[in-house]
Structures are given as C-alpha cells and as structure tokens.
Amino acid sequence: MLDWNLHCAQMPEPLAISCFIITKNEADRLQRTLQSVLGLVEQIVVVDSGSTDQTVAIAKLENATVLHKNWQGFGPQKRFAEDQCTHDWVLNLDADEVLTTELADEIRSLFANGPPKMSGVRFRQTTVYPQQQTPRLWADSHNYIRLYDRTKMRFSASPSHDAVDPGRHKILQLRHPALHYSWRSLSHLTSKYDAYTDLQAATFTRKSPIILYFRLLTEFPVHFIKTYLFRRHITGGRHGLAVSFVIARARWRRIKKLLQTTKQSLQ
Fold first, then answer.
1. What is the spatial distance between Cα 6 and Cα 199, in angstroms, rounded to a whole number?
2. Which residue segments constitute the domains of the chain, with CATH numbers given?
3. DSSP 3-state assignment of 122?
4. Does the pLDDT of residue 75 top 60, yes or no?
5. Nearest to 58 by CA among 91, 33, 83
6. Which of 36, 69, 135, 191 is within CB 3.0–4.6 Å of 99 for a Cys-Cys bond?
7. In terms of C-beta distances under 8 Å and separation of at least 24 residues, what long-range contacts does 130-139 make, across chains too?
8. pLDDT per residue as tens digits for the range 19-33
9. Which pLDDT score, from 0 to 100, does residue 264 have?
C-alpha cells in the first residue's frame, strides 16, 4: 500500500509562478487548460468578461481565483490580469491552450535553482484541429512570450495586439510546445476572425486608400497560399483546405473593413 505521507513528500512543490487566463464562454475547453498547470504553479487567476455558461464554476472548481472585468480589448484585459497576480513571474495561457507534460517539465527544470536569468521565455503553441487530440503532420504554430517577469515586461496595452512587449530584454526559447485547440469548428473559426478584424478596423492606423485598393486585389490569393503551403495546412486534408479558405477570406474582409473605415475618416 502506498504511504500517503511519503507520496506527498515525493510530489514536487508548485513553482512561485502565477498563471493567468482571460475567458468568456470557455466551459467546454477551460478545464483541460487549468489541469495542465495544476501542481506546476502556485496561483491561477481567471479574468472573465461575462460568461453565460459554466466557465466561472469550472474555474472555481479547479481552485482558480476568479475575477470579472468587462471586455476592453486583449491588451487591457491581460494587463488587468497581470496586476491580479501575486508573483512577479507569470505564465499566460489562452483558455484553448494546454501545456504538454514535456513543456511543464521543461519549465520546472528552468526554475530548479530559482528564477531564470532571462526575463522572458518563449514557447510554441501548436495547432490541433477540432475533434483531434494531437497535432497533424508538420502542424503550424505560433511562438509567443508566455512566461515572463512582469516587473521587466508586460502585455501591450493595444486592444487588438495580443503580445508581450519584451523591450530590450533577452528571451529564452523553450524546446517543447503547448497544444492549441484554437477553433471548435469552421464556423467558429470564421466568427473568431470576423470579431478580430472588426476590432482591428476600429483601432487601425490610417492607411492610404490606394494601398488598400491594391491589397484588396492581392490579399486573398497571397494569404491562401501562405496558409495552405507555408503554414502547412496542406497536410490537413479537406479540413486544411477549408481552413486556408476561411483565413484568406477573413484577411480579405479585414482590408475591406479598413478601406471602409478609411473612407469614413476622410469624409
């Protein structure tokens, strides 16, 4: 029989890291994300912007600190979450991202002798298709700073720019990725891009109408080729082809929205 006291003594202590996540209606995905950091970090902060499903209840069930803040854009929302953390070292995850065991072990090794010398850490977020548990062959990924000392760097304050500003600080690249379950279906992917491009159009820096008219002609084919070939959705079969079409169309619609906003600003 397992000696429980011995078992507890062998379990590694959580790291002096706060993990923060912003949410809205993520009940179907959040629990897996939260469970991937349990035992790794000392604090989990969930900042919710008005979920109407079981998101808040699930977060509390996993012992997260849950706070409400009305949506103000990606940057302001994440900066608010940073401020609620008790530790200077913070780990940011989206509600559709899951740490792999290998990545969690790599983070633990990084803090084996105290906080790392680098002020920020970057790791990849590898795309996993809906109804799949693992990435496709040569799956695309993003590569963002997600673990960092918030006294040295923070998220940009931009409502539409969702990234940490590292300043002049050096960033460490980790080897292992997180898994990114980015969309639930093609219709969900379409609605995500529509909402994001609406936000970009509302907060854009004015551009020349001539340049926008030119991009209106080139945006769809350029981004279809970029997504299908260079981001390797070609390995995703018919779903990869459909994804490439949805993303290229969304980028074209973004230019159309920017052009409309530019015309209105010049009137």
1. 53
2. 4-180 (3.90.550.10), 186-266 (no CATH)
3. strand
4. yes
5. 33
6. 36
7. 130/181, 130/183, 130/184, 130/185, 134/179, 135/179, 136/235, 136/236, 136/240, 137/235, 138/232, 138/235, 139/232, 139/235
8. 999 999 999 999 999
9. 74
